[in-house]
UniProtKB/TrEMBL annotation, chains A, B:
Keyword vocabulary terms for this entry: CBS domain, Chloride, Chloride channel, Ion channel, Ion transport, Membrane, Repeat, Transmembrane, Transmembrane helix, Transport
Record membrane topology: Multi-pass membrane protein
Bias (Low complexity) ranges: 668-681
Cellular location(s): Membrane
Taxon lineage: Eukaryota, Metazoa, Chordata, Craniata, Vertebrata
Segments of this protein annotated with the region Disordered: 655-681
Regions that span the bilayer: 75-97, 118-140, 160-180, 192-212, 224-248, 260-280, 306-328, 349-368, 414-435, 447-466
Protein known as: Chloride channel protein
InterPro entries: CBS_dom_sf, Cl-channel_core, Cl_channel_volt-gated, ClC
Length: 837, 837
């Protein structure tokens, strides 16, 4: 076999095997009808690398017809999405509550024997978490973790296909239910963003299969994904507004205001259904907030309490940064320790089981758990913490237990403050450790809970210090520690995620907005502190997982102002010319990696005419060398040789190929002879035709080889090829900053660098990322300066770079800042995803 | 004079006049010190068209030093802005309350005589409104109206300088106070966005004058402006979150998430100070919401009430669209009626006075006003409407008057329903008319009020229909009509402004979030209806005022898919080449309009090298022909001629110019002779020098003329000229959609169209706007289709236009869609602003 065949060899072999199987089946029954399916199947095989979006030009006209009914379809899609997600959320909550109840029953039923009780308490979560980890590992490892970092990357424009499959959906939903049912300090919110996105992607595919056309538009799908993120948060907390804002803050860099609607509508609908289900299930009388508080309305807090709230916010900022640091430290420690790492890689389920064992042992209620309200689930703890009574003033017991949950916080020997402090400290590291387990899990809810506990601690302290409140004149307004809990929850979760919309989420969660000012102040201060110390949890995970996300530009690294595109671009661009032969196209396809290839006028002029998608070139090539033309050629060849041909209807039977000599090497080189029987049934015709097709494709006879060589030497006919006439261009002297802004804004994957129309290089996300990281990374993770948002402003949009002309004249002088090649450890597996895709 | 002088003639004459005046003053006193001021003044004159931002390259290095302390300065700026705006808002509220109280006193004190009472009631607002209109007209006509449309345009990147001056600030603040103090149905919110932006712009200028460097960065100022918009809404309603979201929705197309912070921080701080001032002033005990409601928390509404809320939302959608239509109709009617128009243009104060007279007559409490709660201010009406009692069930009077405001709604003879309906109908058209008056005013608050009244009406109806509430099982929960008022207010204001963030604003205004679901549902439905019928009020005003804003692309006009850049671009591009002479530069400067000029390699190749700012070229030209070089030349000329020169210190005296013959034509062609007296005092030296400089510049002597001709023929030296090496480029086949997206995203003013590196045209905002409007405008105002946001999605981001190559080959074929020239009435005065600027 000549190397020319290496590419098509794969196809022909596959097709050959398939054709034989099909022929065997047809011989039994079947009929001519099936023959066409072979052709469509072969077309599929040839196009198997094609992007579904590449077909878009086919359906453009159809799209335009559909556009009128577009609005309606959008509504329907969003309603469906909201409905499905609300159901998923509600069912999952139900299942989780059931799991947790089962554990309590088991634990409660065995109260005669402490050891049995302990075993029941510990075994249950270990089994659930191990199952969750194992199930996820087997079905879809992409379902592990939060999912927000991945969604951030996907919405940036990088295709991570395996993150949006049905398998991942199943793994995520079931894994998450088990993980949360175990009672570990894990959250539902992050994974829910991922689940909603999965749901949107699958719904799109489903509707595309049903209705076609419109739902195939990939750009539209991206917009739906961003709405789905809002739905995820919205139906998880029944917080539509907070959900929309949180998803914007967490996933976007530049937000198109027109998408705002979509998110609002879908999230509202989803939250509505989610809460209506609770009403129908008789859990609630009407639609109310998830963690409804009952603070007094007339005087929620005194002006003089604001410093306490501010201090709470600053402390939460430090706490949030510490949490992110701790979380990353644990992951990095385990990675560095090679023995641990090897062991864990071999026995993947040992780590989650071990972690669960330790955590559940520590929370065992008759043991250490009695000092940290270990018996409560997250939901119960939060309800208790947001309570509007003052715990420290209730004395020892009297009315403390009218809600059973509050009882857990009161220990006969131990002060409520000690309980709170222990709860905070233990939950802090437990949450940081638990979120590193390879199960679907988020960190938002645990952090939220810790924040609420910390706020409650501060509130109770304030209540002790000012028993009659601070307000001086007139009536007595005692301190409301529950208000501090709300503020603390918002501040800590805001600090960990680097968002301010947690403020809105708490209002929607608690159903009260009276503490708006303290919450806003604390959240802003917590963000200011946390952002100056650590990246957000999601950015940290992006770095840990080495996802292909474009980092933001750092401040204070002014050398980057001098980096220009010419310093980072790849000069060895793969291109094809107008006069290229098919052979050249084939070679380019086999060597390059980028999704699109440049089309230049000629190798001399190098003037960029446009870009062609890889899949387009593949189909050009397959058209030229495909089975149809092969058969055509063979038929003509056979006709020329005077062999008898048999035509029946539209089908051309190629027979008597045994007149040709057998080829020298390939594995299955039997040549069969068929003599034509004009009285055959159509089924038999089908079988024969099929087998002969398989033979022709399978056996690269010398004539065929020769014919292929000829075909490859022909110049490419671009007439049926779709070309993008306006690929994105930069000039060599475009600064890194401008490039970064344009890539972020337009969500580019790559851009061509031209010099007075001539193609001189190409810059992809990969080069850009390396250039940015090369000068920012200090200790493995980019450290963001105080309120990063404030700092980026001046730099990122500096569009008008003025430079002196004499520099323009001697353009190809020595580069001002020759860049070192980036270290090979950057060549992560994931890097390839967005380059090959 | 040769035509060459026409450009510099202006300068020289101005300078000559100035120099003579200065010389006269110097002769009296003054001294040598003043001489330098002449030079700086002349430099000013020569640079008078320069953009302040063009100097940016000078301060880049300084900027970089400042960048470290950048974050701190941002904080300080935002705190200052928040503080100032809170103070302005509070003082204005105080003044308005005082005005309204004064009217009530006057009205109340005259209750003996109905006629006097009527005169007092009517005269007071007429005087205030007339003063407001007159004051604004004289000081700054730009202060008229809402200001949000202008801010939308400015944030889009179009410079409307006169909208951000100190004069406008004063006019807006004082005009607004008077307008609102008159008690007309006008709002504070829109103008406050403008006031906050003015405040930010002035603060920037002030800080730039104090500290320089950083505060001159114009890009940063734009970001600060977008934060200022949030502050404006935030401190007007004490609604920081709603303020941020509303300002984003109203002013942005693509929002940079990093700006989110800035807005949040500034708006929170501002709202905080605004409410703290109320506490300090003993108006409130602590910080609470502006219109605090006291609805019950445990069961705010029943699930079965949701259809009523939905219907309310849909009705508000129709109402909102009607309001926008009515408002525009009034403006257009008056414009079309030429006699009215002429009359109103001559007597500008008649219209507002007339409108005020009619409105205040109708609201006169003893007259028709008694049936529509005419005696209440907007604030009082809103407090009454959001009341948590049910009006219809209170019977005739009993406890109805424990808040005095509610009394106004109850008429002895007339049902409360009639009062509400009259209130809604009358206020509806009154607000629509009042907002067309040429005073600073917004429409948000009046619309909000009407919405609340409509909601109250629906709520009261529901309360009548279901006296014991709808809830079936267990306890009785009566309907809360106040909740309907909240929902109606949010829905109607949302419908008029096309925003959903009004939902958040009502939560913050009322301090209760219990009705979140009905509010969200109603707002979304109202938006869906309103958007399908009319543009938003702000877009409508943009069209009425013909502001240079880039409209959004419409749906269902598929012909626009076929419009490409080549169809709309200006082919006659002004450019300069590397070998251009100064004369060519001068000619290009005198003919072109765009802010920047293209630099191409040569007229033959037309390869685009970059773009140069107009101001850069002007300074190049002035360097070449400026006074320094003129004097230099003359001095050398004089030296060569052997005339005696006189050197004293650094000053070169040019005297005895009388040896030259006088020029033929110019108006002031007297040549004076000065003989040198070496014993003169320095003051006299100064005078003489000055006069001689003036002479030299003033009199284009033949030698000078000849010299100038020579100078103009020299090739331009670009060495000291800042060139943008990467101006934005499009290709001819870029679609209108892509162009629109790129212009919107990057805030471009113009883009060059290149064909394989060669400059073939230029597209500016103007062409783009005309192309879009050309195919969308039907009845003067673009009609937005249902939920416009939904529709734009698929189209706007269609980046990958694939086309067939054979079209690429015969590129210069006949254009597929030749566009007609746009009608001359589009050539509005304002159009020029963004082209010349």
């Amino acid at each position: 076999l000549s190397p020319v065949f290496s590419m098509y060899g794969r196809y022909t072999q596959e097709l050959g095997v398939y054709a034989k199987e099909e022929a065997a089946r047809l011989r039994d029954g079947g009929g001519l009808r099936r023959v066409t399916s072979v052709r469509s199947r072969s077309a599929e095989l040839l196009e198997y690398e094609k992007d579904p979006c590449a077909k878009c030009h086919v359906c453009t006209s159809r799209c335009q017809k559909f556009l009128i009914s577009r609005v309606g379809e959008d509504w329907i899609f969003l309603i469906l999405l909201g409905l499905v997600m609300a159901l998923v959320s509600w069912v999952m909550d139900y299942a989780i509550a059931f799991c947790q109840q089962a554990q309590k029953w088991m634990y409660g039923g065995l109260d005669s024997n402490m050891l049995l009780q302990y075993l029941a308490w510990v075994t249950y979560p270990v089994v659930l978490i191990t199952f969750s980890a194992g199930f996820t590992q087997i079905l879809s490892p992409q379902a592990v973790g939060s999912g927000i970092p991945e969604m951030k990357t996907i919405l940036r424009g990088v295709v991570l296909k395996e993150y949006l499959t049905f398998k991942t959906f199943v793994a995520k939903v079931i894994g998450l239910t088990c993980a949360l049912g175990s009672g570990m300090p894990l959250g539902k919110e992050g994974p829910f963003v991922h689940v909603a996105s999965l749901c949107a992607a699958l719904l799109s595919k489903f509707l595309a299969a049903l209705f076609g056309g419109l739902y195939k538009n990939e750009l539209r799908n991206t917009e739906m994904l961003s709405a789905a993120c809002a739905v995820g948060v919205g139906c998880c907390f029944a917080a539509p507004i907070g959900g929309v804002l949180f998803s914007i803050e967490v996933t976007s860099t530049f937000f198109a205001v027109r998408n705002y609607w979509r998110g609002f509508f879908a999230a509202t609908f989803s939250a509505f259904i989610f809460r209506v289900l609770a009403v129908w299930n008789q859990d609630e009388e009407t639609i109310t907030a998830l963690f409804k508080t009952r603070f007094r309305l007339d005087f929620p807090f005194d002006l003089q309490e604001l410093p306490a709230f501010a201090i709470l916010g600053i402390a939460c900022g430090f706490g949030g940064a510490l949490f992110v640091y701790l979380n990353r430290l644990i992951v990095e420690c385990m990675r560095k320790q090679k023995t641990i790492n090897k062991f864990l890689l071999r026995k993947r389920l040992v780590y989650p089981a071990m972690v669960t064992l330790i955590i559940s042992t520590l929370t065992f209620p008759p043991g250490f758990g009695q000092f940290m309200a270990g018996q409560l689930t997250q939901h119960e703890s939060l309800v208790a913490l947001l309570d509007n009574r003052t715990w420290c003033r209730q004395g020892v017991a009297e009315e403390f237990d009218y809600i059973s949950h509050s009882h857990a916080w009161k220990h006969p020997q131990v002060n409520v403050f000690i309980t709170l402090i222990l709860f905070i400290v233990m939950k802090f590291w437990m949450s940081a450790v638990a979120t590193t387990m390879p199960v679907p899990c988020g960190a938002f809810m645990p952090v939220f809970l810790i924040g609420a506990a910390f706020g409650r601690l501060v509130g109770e302290t304030m209540a002790i210090m000012f028993p009659d409140g601070i307000h001086a004149d007139g009536s007595v307004y005692p301190i409301v520690p529950g208000g501090y809990a709300v503020v603390g929850a918002a501040a800590l979760s805001g600090a960990v995620t680097h968002t301010v919309s947690t403020a809105v989420i708490v209002f929607e969660l608690t159903g009260q907005i009276s503490h708006i000012l303290p919450v806003m102040i604390a959240v802003i201060l917590a963000n200011a502190v946390a952002q100056s110390l650590q990246p957000s949890l999601y950015d940290s995970i992006i770095r840990i997982k080495k996802l292909p996300y474009l980092p933001e530009l750092g401040m204070g690294h002014h050398e980057k102002y001098n980096i220009r595109v010419e310093d980072i671009m790849v000069r060895d661009v793969r291109y094809i010319t107008l006069s290229s032969s098919y052979r050249e196209v084939q070679e380019v396809l086999m060597t390059g990696q980028l999704k699109t290839l440049a089309l230049v006028e000629s190798t001399d002029s190098m003037i960029l005419l446009g870009s062609i998608e890889r899949s387009q070139l593949q189909s050009l090539l397959s058209l030229q060398l495909g089975p149809t033309r092969r058969l055509d050629h063979l038929r003509r060849h056979a006709q020329d040789n005077g062999t008898h041909t048999h035509t029946l209807g539209a089908h051309t039977h190629l027979t008597s190929l045994d007149t040709m000599d057998s080829p020298p090497s390939p594995p299955c080189t039997h040549t069969h002879s068929y003599t034509s029987n004009s009285s055959n049934t159509s089924a038999r015709h089908g079988v024969r035709f099929l087998v002969s097709v398989a033979e022709v494709i399978l056996n690269p006879l010398p004539q065929i080889a020769e014919w292929e060589e000829q075909q490859l030497d022909e110049p490419v006919d671009f007439n049926n090829c779709k070309i993008d006439p306006a690929p994105f261009q930069l000039v060599e002297r475009t600064s890194l900053h401008k490039t970064h802004t344009i890539f972020s804004l337009l969500g580019l994957d790559h851009a061509y660098v031209t010099s007075t129309g001539r193609l001189v290089g190409v810059v992809s996300l990969r080069e850009l990322r390396k250039a940015i990281e090369g000068s920012v990374t200090v200790t493995g993770v980019k450290v963001r300066p105080p309120l990063a948002s404030f700092r980026d402003s001046g730099n990122t949009t500096s569009v008008s770079e003025v430079t002196e002309l004499h520099k323009l004249w001697n353009r190809h002088r020595g580069l001002s800042l020759p860049r070192e090649p980036t270290p090979p450890d950057m060549e992560d597996q994931l890097d390839l995803v967005f380059l090959c895709e």
